Amino acid sequence: MRRPFALLAAALLLGASAALAAPAVPASAAGGDEGFTIKDPRITESSGLAASRLHPGVYWTHNDSDDGPYLYAVDSATGETVARLTLTGIGTPRDVEAISIGPGNRIFVGDIGDNLGGTWPHVWIYELPEPKELRDQTVRATQYVVTYSDGARDAESLVVHPKTGRVYLIDKKKEGGHLYEGPAELSASGGNVFEPLAPVELWATDAAFSPDGRQLAVRGYFGGIHYAWNDGRPEREGRLSVPLQGQGESVSYSADGSRLMYGSEGAQSPVEAREVPGGDGSGSTSSSGGGAQAGDEGPEGGAGSGDGVRIGAVTAAAVVCAALFGLGRRRRRG
């Protein structure tokens, strides 16, 4: 889904302090992943991200709209694509926005975006087995028809609980949306109505469950929120330190649960790693700082040299935004 120019400028400005406040994952960190760049020239709009549990170090991704029924397996050690899956048994994908892996290494793909602002009568979810062998191949998928109990809407976040297999969606609204719960089991022969479960105070672009299913991370363009998952309901714990990205679209826990991996659209797009809140892989302790977002209070100021660095970065980002804004104005006048 294409975003307006102003969104990029806002991301540069509002995300600068969050990017500096979040410490990068050290290269010496044991296990997990340390970030990588997607090198495949076919992947220019990476919109979803999911860590494979069957193939350590591999992440599944896909393009946004205008591609096809394709999934890409990317090796985080090299950034190279090691397999491309072509899905059959489904219709023509419309606006694929999210990917998640459920129990039994089943891949779920969310064709849930709505470029018309929430007017399509239904959207789709595709389910397929993760291949045991990584190579270019065709895989048959099951297609599910999805509606919302309170009317059509745009969404970019799909998560599957790793223990129960239940599917959840989060609609995308600037003022904040809702987490929607699907039926206990999806039906391929009938409709699947998703019901609102809890508000999400975020302009959400993706979400992910931790491998143990006890934590839920939700990201937006300018920040994120992490929740404890208790008895099938989210309990907000704090903000996430989301890195500054031109068009932040995706998030996934690493396979060992120690990192949150943040992806962005664009050619040669980076996937950046951050330790989970608490830094111990459980994500169950106090929150870390993050960027401003709907429903979040800004970070509290404090003394120290770090404040000067943050202020300088925000100033630099503002200069860049001003330059980009001026360029956009000149282009529109031409």
Major beta sheet, specifics? 8 strands, mixed
Could you say which structural class the secondary elements and strand pairing correspond to?
mainly beta
* Mean pLDDT over the full residue set: 80
What's the count of strands? 21
The helix tally amounts to: 2
Query: What pattern of helices and strands is seen along the backbone?
Result: HEEEEEEEEEEEEEEEEEEEEEH
Strand content: 35-45%
Helix content: 10-25%
Q: Tell me, briefly, the overall form.
A: globular
Task: Please state the CA-atom Rg, rounded to the nearest Å.
Answer: 19 Å
Catalogue the unreliable spans: 4-32, 280-334
- Order of strands, main sheet, comes to 6-7-8-10-14-13-12-11
* C-alpha termini separation: 26 Å
If you had to describe this structure to a student in words, what would you say it looks like?
The protein is mostly beta strands and 334 residues long. 14% of the residues lie in helices and 38% in strands. It has helices at 5-21, 305-333; strands spanning 36-37, 46-51, 58-63, 70-75, 81-88, 98-102, 106-111, 123-129, 137-140, 142-148, 155-160, 167-171, 177-181, 191-200, 204-209, 215-220, 224-230, 233-240, 248-253, 259-264, 270-275. Strand 16 (215-220) and strand 17 form a beta hairpin. The longest helix has 29 residues, at 305-333.
Attribute tags:
single chain; 334 residues; mainly beta; 8-stranded mixed β-sheet; 5-stranded mixed β-sheet; globular; disordered C terminus
